[in-house]
Amino acid sequence: MGDFRTDLWSHPVLATAVTDEDWGQVFRTYRMFTGLSQTKLGELVGLVQPDVSDIERGRRRVTSLEVRQRIVAGLGIPPSLHNPGAQAKTAPVPALALTGPGPDEDLLARVTSVVDSTHRVDAPTLDWLDRLLAEHRRAEDVIGSRPLVDVMRNQLHTVVDLYAGAQGPLADRVVRLASEHAQFLAWMAQDQGQTAAALAWYDRSHEWALEAGDPDMAATTLSMKAHMAWSGGRGTRCVRLAEAARWSAPGTSLGVQGMAAQMAARGHALNGDADNAERLLDEAQTLINRAAEHPEDEPPWMYFYGATWFTLQRGMAALHLRNWQTAIDHLTTGLDALPEEYRRDRTWYQSCLAHALAGTGETAQALAVATTTVPDAAAIGRPHSWNELHTTAAVLLRHRAREGHQLVAALREHD
Is the pLDDT assigned to residue 404 strictly greater than 60? Predict the structure, then answer.
């Protein structure tokens, strides 16, 4: 277990859980990667199984220094993670206040109240802003979200400044455009693992969508919040939000309906409910096929939604259900059809393919796919693709495959 346990602590989820002293998360993740039962883990740390269960469920907190030391020693947690002195040396300067990624007070005040402005609004200006937003969405597929955040915040300020000078249908268009910008900012915050900021932007986008009478965006924001729940491993919340997207905004496009259906399916898959997952995936596929017949009826942010994207989603559901070969087949087919310019998405689905290959025991292939993915995951795929590659390494290590150590070494080169 020595090398396996040492490499295991390089996984970002485990490292963060130790740093935050979230021992329930530590126990759950450690057991997932090692395959240990609660009883066996308890033997390592000197706790009985009911105590381990209570800690995992949040019913008991670890407040005793002696218990904490037993956990650290029993699980072999590296000193660099649990030593407070080592943490202090690398901690940010407390007095340095950084601007948050969420909606700031100035922006909210400017939007929710009348602003004196001499900006004139006309349809060609709003058409240009629509085109500019579409170009930024496609650029983000290639270069990732980080370079675009400040650009999009400034662009949203420009849209907001137009509100006071807009009347009638133009005012509705400005609010709708603001909603689309907020949704894109939410997606970019989510892509960077900034959960609180993403939720704030999604809520802002949802409110503006309702104000503008835009059911497609109102439903999309709920589907994307479902996606966030799925990313956090919360299958039941994912299903509830996706179902809310389906019933709370009547009149949505077929593509938006299909997105909500497949998000609910992924939530069921995460919960291990294969029957409901497959039923909803079939329903979503029917909606996709119908949407493809009239692409002009779909909102502009649904440009990525099609047969290729849906094939990849089926692969994701199969991955959750541990149907490894089905996941490999769908992910391989989808990746073969995915355009090269979708760099961020290719990075994510390749990391998932590596995970599926590791799960089925194809260790050499898993390593080959993973190592090819590492550079892009380091550059534009943090935290999601990066974490998935660490998960792949943990699966390989659990199988006692030497490829696990090789992948850990490749990841460390880019840390």
Answer: yes
Within 192-214, residue ranges assigned H as helices are: 195-212
CA-wise closest residue to 407 among 415, 398, 399, 397 = 397
Give the whole-angstrom CA distance, residue 216 versus residue 238: 19
| Cα separation, 227 vs 39, whole angstroms | 33
Distance CA 32, CA 28 (A): 6
- How much is the pLDDT for 91? 35
- Of 358, 368, 360, 334, the C-alpha closest to 348 is 334
Chain centroid to CA 344: how far? 12
**What's the pLDDT tens digit per position in 209-228?**
999 999 999 999 999 999 99
Q: Give me 247's structure tokens.
A: 């019933």
**pLDDT given at position 102:** 62
pTM of structure: 0.74
Report the distance separating Cα 384 and Cα 387, nearest Å: 5
Taking CA atoms, 58 is separated from 46, 52, 195, 326, in Å, by 18, 10, 21, 35
Cβ within 8 Å of residue 364, ≥6 positions away: 403
Peptide linkage before 383 cis (omega within 30 of 0) = yes
- As a whole number of angstroms, the distance between CA 237 and CA 243 comes to 10
Report how far residue 47's alpha carbon sits from residue 146's, in angstroms, rounded to the nearest whole number. 44
Provide the pLDDT confidence category of residue 90 given band limits of 50, 70 and 90: very low
Task: Report CA torsion sign: 354, 358, 361, 366.
Answer: positive
Q: State both tokens at 304.
A: 């990525």
- Alpha-carbon separation of residue 367 from 8, 317, 344, 372, 375 (angstroms): 16, 22, 20, 8, 14
Query: Which residue in 276, 284, 272, 410 sits closest to 351, CA to CA?
Result: 410
Amino acid at 89: K
Digit-coded pLDDT (tens) for 367-379: 999 999 999 999 9
Angle of helix 343-359 versus helix 363-380 axis, rounded to 10? 150
Render pLDDT for 224-268 as a digit per residue (tens, 0 to 9).
999 999 988 899 999 999 999 999 888 899 999 999 999 999 999
